[in-house]
Design brief:
The chain is mainly beta. Helices cover 15% and strands 50% of the residues. The chain has a 3-stranded parallel beta sheet, with helices on one face. It starts with a strand and ends with a strand.
């Protein structure tokens, strides 16, 4: 097994699933009743998920707000114990930079 260093941006892919039965009166867009929501890491986060089984250490260098750090650890492998954790990250601090969120609505 090897060590890999990844550099890049992480986004949050959020998928909302629901039903629609009418168009809104204000504009010709469907009104959606959301039934479920799921989230996963996208961009570099997707690559990290793919690489985890093939390396012993995975280092991530990205820029995100400190509030997003717990989310990245949780979704990127932080649920494992300290000894077995594959993902380690370095935060490049930048004020007021929040993680991008890509919302997909499935009807």
């Amino acid at each position: 097994m090897s060590s890999i260093l990844c550099l890049g941006d992480i986004i949050l892919d959020r998928t909302l699933t629901g039903k629609t039965s009418f168009l809104t009166p204000e504009a010709p867009v469907p009104a959606i009743k959301i039934h479920s929501e799921s989230s996963s890491l996208g961009n570099l986060g997707n690559i990290i998920q793919s690489l985890k089984p093939f390396c012993s250490e995975l280092f991530l260098v990205t820029c995100f707000c400190l509030e997003d750090g717990d989310l990245i650890c949780k979704m990127g492998g932080g649920e494992e114990s300290e000894e077995k954790r594959v993902l380690q990250y370095v935060n490049v601090e930048q004020d007021n930079r929040r993680m991008l969120v890509l919302n997909r609505v499935m009807v």
